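Supplementary Methods S3. Complex input for the FE2/S2 (inorganic) cluster-bound model.
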Amino acid sequence: MPVPRPNVFPEAGSAESAADASALPPGKATRKAALLLAGTGGSRAAVGEVEALGRRLKETGLVARVAFAFAAGGAPSLHTALRGLADKGVDEVLLLPLLVPMEPGLRVWVGRSVQRWRAAAPELRWPLVRLAPPPSDTLGIKEVLREMLGQAEEAAPMGESALFASDASLVPAQHWRVLVCQGLACNSAGAPAVWNQLRLEEDRLALRTRGRGVTACTTGCLGPCSLAPVLQVYPDGQFYGGVDEAGLRRIVHEHLLGGQVVEELAYAPNGRKQRLRARTWRAAAPNVAAAKAEA
Ligand code: FES
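Predicted complex, serialized as structure tokens:
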């Protein structure tokens, strides 16, 4: 089980939080938060690096809260982090992408994902979300690059140590392979959030070794772009379309763990062009198969 990590600096209600809020320049909303959006948080070291950046940002005193999230795998996801800030009564979230290069579709998928999350939990008071430009568009980036150059000059040369990867590998034994399309149409429709959700479920449910075993990877366009976001499950090559985080959870529990195709999201090659069907299931409906699989 991954260790839950705090993603808000400082935690709600702490003395540090109160002091920071009172020290804000006049006119700065005390319920404004910055949210760092990083790439992959697949290791403790990666999470620690983003935490350190969050602390640096917190020290500027420009916002009352700083949180972080990962866009391409790792916890917390953007959804979890945003919900956490909404639960803490934050009015506005300034989203800072730490992604180089920043996917051209990021603005669209974040916008659509936020719309979807709001629609799925209308009872929650969601904050306004504003997206900053990528690091390469900021004036101060020259200073950062200059400092990095200086530090690189001082660093020990790479490739001088005797550290080599082993020359033998295990061939994976997993039965299921999930391809998650990250082509333009799928990215714009929210595929990064679906991929992130799959990585979280993989970790949470130990999918690699559980049942018949699952491996997953991202791919370029799989073909049926009008069904975005699309994923495909092998060895059968089953296509799924219009997959969101709730749909992904069903595919994990019913198909990968239960061996049953999720018909509501499934599309078969029939020689004709196909459109996305309207949803016929409710995301919040109790999922008996899921409950059984987790029991
Ligand atoms: S971009 Fe995903 S199927 Fe084409």
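The first helix runs from residue 15 to 22. Strands lie at 8-9, 32-38, 65-70, 92-97, 128-131, 176-181, 214-219, 231-234, 238-240, 266-267.
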